[in-house]
Design a protein that fits this description.
There is one protein chain. By secondary structure, the chain is mostly helical. Among the domains are: 6-86, no CATH class; 135-165. It is 66% helix and 0% strand. Helix 1 runs antiparallel to helix 2. It is rod-shaped, with a radius of gyration of 55 Å. The termini are far apart. Mean pLDDT is 80; it is low at 1-37.
Length: 180
């Protein structure tokens, strides 16, 4: 019968079992020489539980169980840290790739926008030039309308003078005005 405190009674089964623990180098129930990590690092939670149970079952006393638990907890902490570092590095790498792709897309869109702005600027310049040309043509058209009105008035005035001259003429009939 095991005479240990109630917490340690669970570990009394180690006296009954002859299994070699995963964390031991030799079969003499002594912790392995590498105190930081067990010889086989479990990959999942169930394997860690199994390793803890085996180590606790193979502990010869409470101090040995504490030493084994401490060693396993350090190994678990190191394993979790390594896994977290690997996951973080992978996430950073993925984020970096995503950001690089996003930057490439943004640069392409920026180039497209630059070309669009250049084209729009050229169109605005052409439009302004056409507007100035149209204003100039409107001024010329207005001047031509004024000239046409003046010429029509002069023509009307000359017709009136010609009629008066023909009515007051001593030679009846039509004659050529340059011939006397």
């Amino acid at each position: 019968m095991c005479h240990l405190p109630s917490k340690a009674k669970l570990f009394c089964l180690s006296h009954l079992m002859l299994k070699r623990p995963l964390g031991l180098v030799n079969g003499d129930n002594a912790p392995s020489t590498n105190e930081d990590t067990p010889s086989v690092i479990p990959k999942d939670g169930a394997a860690w539980v199994e390793l803890f149970v085996r180590e606790m079952m193979n502990a010869s006393n409470v101090d040995d169980a504490r030493a084994r638990a401490s060693m396993l907890l350090k190994a678990l902490e190191k394993s979790i840290g390594s896994h977290a570092d690997a996951v973080a590095a992978d996430n950073i790498h993925k984020e970096n790739l995503f950001l690089k792709e996003h930057v490439e897309v943004l640069l392409q869109e920026n180039n497209i926008l630059k070309r669009a702005v250049t084209i729009q600027h050229e169109r605005i310049k052409e439009y302004d030039e056409r507007c100035r040309e149209m204003e100039h043509l409107k001024q010329i058209l207005s001047q031509y309308h004024e000239q046409v009105r003046n010429l029509e008035m002069n023509n009307y005035t000359l017709k009136i003078y010609l009629r008066q001259a023909q009515q007051n003429s001593s030679i009846p009939g039509r004659f050529h005005p340059d011939v006397f």
